[in-house]
Fold this sequence. Notes:
The chain has six helices and four strands, in the order αββααββααα. By secondary structure, the chain is α+β, with helices and mostly antiparallel strands. The strands form two sheets. A two-stranded antiparallel ribbon has the order 1-2. The chain has a two-stranded parallel sheet with strand order 3-4. The longest helix has 15 residues, at 173-187.
Amino acid sequence: GMATGKMKGSFKEILQKLKSTGYAVKCKLMNSQWYGVPQSRNRLIFIGTSNGISPSFPNPTVKKTITVKEALKNCPNGIIKQVSSRLLPYVILTKPGETVAKYHPKHSLFNYRKLHPYKQAPTLSKTGTIIHYEYNRLITDNEAKRLSSFPDDFILIGSLLQRLARIGNAVMPKFMEAIAKHIKTEILK
Length: 189
């Protein structure tokens, strides 16, 4: 949302300030699902270069995206957080890929979304409101790591909500790896 709506003026100002430093700067809206992450998440990426080198961005690294079911296969157990008893009746009605709001009488709880096993995960927010497609519970910390391309042995500290917030705020590792490799091989060559 940074390049559109209310933030568009701020976006132009940020871009102008970056360019005023003498760097050639470009930005691009990129979706992590095309870089080996089983999550459809857009990120606005800025790349700046100097010495007459033109900034560029990596091409997608995968032709076939990874589904939630593929990503969660043999996922190690994690901390399970059940949905509240107030929310459970609506979660039970919610089909994979839908939001709980569809079934709530006031159409609230729109942040709660049930994963679809044969699609990519939606953006994992820092509030931990993603529901497993098969079980009527929130996803575990280990499932969130898998859906964001963190390795299984990556250790996150803090409470479950703190760990989910860290994952939600992160730039996904495989996505950042593709950008870093592109910079190394195409810009810094």
